[in-house]
Amino acid sequence: MEYKTGIGYPIEKFIEFGNEVFGDEVLPGGFECLLPKLKKDTDLPKHFRVIEEEGELKAMLLSLPLTLKVYDQMLSIRYIGLVAVHESSRGRGYMTSLMEQAIKEMKEEKTMLSILGGQRQRYEYFGYEPAGLEFHCVVNKANLKHNMLSKPMDSGITIDLLRKDSAEAKQAYSLFTSIPIRALRREDSFYEILQSWRCIPYVIYKDGAFKGYLSISIEGNTGRIRELYRKDDSVSITDICFLCMESCKVEKLEFALPLPEIKKDKELQNLCEIYEIACNHSFCVFDFEAVIKAYLPFLSQTNKVLEGEAKFYIEDELYTISVSEVCQEVRRESVHKDTKLKNVPSYTYNEAVKLLFSPLSSLQRDENTEELRKWFPLPLYLSILDAC
């Protein structure tokens, strides 16, 4: 058994191996259709970690570097995906070896945050906890019937397929880069990213002018809108829903959108049949200070700031958070466990992730966390289109 990076392998080999291991789960078309963006990054093989037996690929893991822009802060993250072990080599600890090595490398390079999707208990061993916040909702035809006063076409609103290398594709990319919380994407792979998970990108027009874009996947009579951004409110969510149902021949739409966007959009909140605040992915937080600091401006962007100061321990580190109208600060200092103050709440790593970043935040609180109720959970989020 030999552990090595994926340098020297063509990306097609990893796609072929993934198709073989995942089988029917990635049909039709395999990973070529599921994640067309994989072939856009010529440097991608070096981010794979593999295990070989006698020169044959037997296990692989992709540790994809991404940058998450959160207002004026940049968070270095790694998305763990395409974790696969050949059927003939299962039970030998290869997945564990790959994950342990990936975690070691992330700590060495000072990665702030790692994200993945996968079976919870399998990845809890490595420090991943379900967290983040996203707004899930369903809109059906009955909702539209009771909310639409006229057909969107009567107001000059239409949607059409977004074409690669078109002027509208450039406008869509420009709109995306104006979003305050987002993963950085290269323009030359933006279109393929919008096609992730068999999504179809659409452009939104009003009177022939570009007004936004969306990316939707279709399964049976359900359309799943994975990303939706508008230039302004001149095109309503209700109109977009009607046009999507008509164009995609579906009976209902499911949305999974970031909380900062949905908080500004009362229309979708009031239109949808059912809704929930759900976990976004599983997260492994290496740098709580950096992540909290990046997301604290969310408080002043969307609310009247509730000023105050709070202290708490995560394992053997003391965190102090100060929030005012003009400034949000986070300070971290290492402490010896024998010097911990008894009146300052103390949390394990897993408890801290739930408290600070998950929908279960309110269930983690006690009488010592009154100040934290003002500010947490913070809306950690990564679009599924950036996942792999």
Automatic annotation (TrEMBL):
Spell out the InterPro entries in the cross-references: Acetyltransferase_Eis, Acyl_CoA_acyltransferase, GNAT_dom
Q: Name one GO molecular function term.
A: aminoglycoside N-acetyltransferase activity
Q: Which domain of life is it from?
A: Bacteria
* PROSITE patterns according to UniProt: GNAT
Domain N-acetyltransferase: residue ranges: 1-154
Enumerate the CDD domains for this protein. Answer: NAT_SF
The UniProt entry's GO biological process terms, in alphabetical order, are:
aminoglycoside antibiotic catabolic process
SUPFAM superfamilies assigned to the protein according to its UniProt record, in alphabetical order: Acyl-CoA N-acyltransferases (Nat)
What protein does this entry describe? N-acetyltransferase domain-containing protein
Q: Which organism is it from?
A: Lachnoclostridium phytofermentans
